[in-house]
């Protein structure tokens, strides 16, 4: 069932042929097609916020700009959005460039975190820019951040469409709690062979999360794409493959 009081959560995840999301034996880099990259940019433009876990921030130090270059063509202005991170207030995360690029960022952290003096100074400097906000968040019995509380906070900030980009642990938690409303799963024709990071996400996991397979296509280069949605939620386009 779709909770109309919370943002609609659209998961985007990219996998290799064996279901891995990354290879820790190599430098982190995009492994999907240019057409898939185009689609991801389109999805970001349809979203009010992008959410990732702290592991993705530290591993990739992602840059989500106000302007995104679409497949090397003209620069396309992307509407203002929030970037939201689930994090532990670690100094290495706070020092990531994504925290200091001047764009609006919201960081959710445990409301019971103990913060040392150095991190207090860093946090104060970031908050003084009025572009970075730290939001204390309740935890559950497993001491993980309460995801429903986070979605409620994002709703209060005006977020109606939320793009969920990972990493796998964060995605798995959203799926287990049936908080994902749509899923776009991209499988690239490659195999990570050094230190693959399994996603632990397959058709069974997606179905258990309350999602139904709407269709599959290979319109994004050589990548295979499967599109999933909760039954009560209408897909944004009449033709499934036309969105995003």
From TrEMBL:
<dbReference type="InterPro" id="IPR024072">
    <property type="entry name" value="DHFR-like_dom_sf"/>
</dbReference>
<dbReference type="Pfam" id="PF01872">
    <property type="entry name" value="RibD_C"/>
</dbReference>
<dbReference type="GO" id="GO:0008703">
    <property type="term" value="F:5-amino-6-(5-phosphoribosylamino)uracil reductase activity"/>
</dbReference>
<dbReference type="InterPro" id="IPR002734">
    <property type="entry name" value="RibDG_C"/>
</dbReference>
<dbReference type="GO" id="GO:0009231">
    <property type="term" value="P:riboflavin biosynthetic process"/>
</dbReference>
<protein>
    <recommendedName>
        <fullName>Bacterial bifunctional deaminase-reductase C-terminal domain-containing protein</fullName>
    </recommendedName>
</protein>
<comment type="pathway">
    <text>Cofactor biosynthesis; riboflavin biosynthesis.</text>
</comment>
<keyword id="KW-0560">Oxidoreductase</keyword>
<dbReference type="InterPro" id="IPR050765">
    <property type="entry name" value="Riboflavin_Biosynth_HTPR"/>
</dbReference>
<feature type="domain" description="Bacterial bifunctional deaminase-reductase C-terminal">
    <location>
        <begin position="9"/>
        <end position="191"/>
    </location>
</feature>
<keyword id="KW-0521">NADP</keyword>
């Amino acid at each position: 069932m779709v909770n109309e009081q919370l943002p609609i959560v659209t998961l985007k995840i990219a996998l290799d042929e064996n279901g891995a999301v990354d290879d820790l034996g190599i430098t982190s880099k995009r492994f999907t097609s240019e057409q898939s990259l185009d689609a991801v940019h389109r999805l970001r433009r349809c979203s009010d916020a992008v959410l990732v876990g702290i592991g993705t921030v530290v591993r990739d130090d992602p840059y989500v700009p106000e302007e995104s270059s679409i497949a090397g063509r003209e620069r396309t202005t992307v509407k203002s959005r929030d970037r939201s991170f689930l994090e532990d207030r670690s100094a290495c995360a706070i020092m990531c460039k994504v925290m200091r690029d001047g764009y609006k960022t919201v960081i959710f952290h445990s409301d019971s975190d103990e913060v040392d003096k150095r991190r207090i100074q860093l946090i104060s400097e970031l908050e003084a820019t009025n572009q970075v906000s730290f939001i204390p968040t309740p935890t559950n019995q497993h001491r993980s951040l309460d995801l429903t509380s986070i979605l409620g906070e994002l709703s209060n900030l005006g977020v109606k469409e939320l793009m969920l980009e990972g990493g796998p642990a964060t995605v798995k938690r959203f799926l287990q709690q049936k908080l994902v409303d749509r899923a776009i799963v991209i499988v690239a024709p490659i195999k990570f062979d050094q230190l693959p990071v399994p996603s632990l996400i397959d058709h069974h996991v997606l179905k258990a999360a309350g999602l139904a397979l709407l269709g599959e296509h290979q319109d994004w280069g050589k990548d295979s794409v499967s599109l999933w949605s909760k039954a009560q939620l209408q897909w944004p386009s009449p033709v499934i493959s036309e969105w995003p």
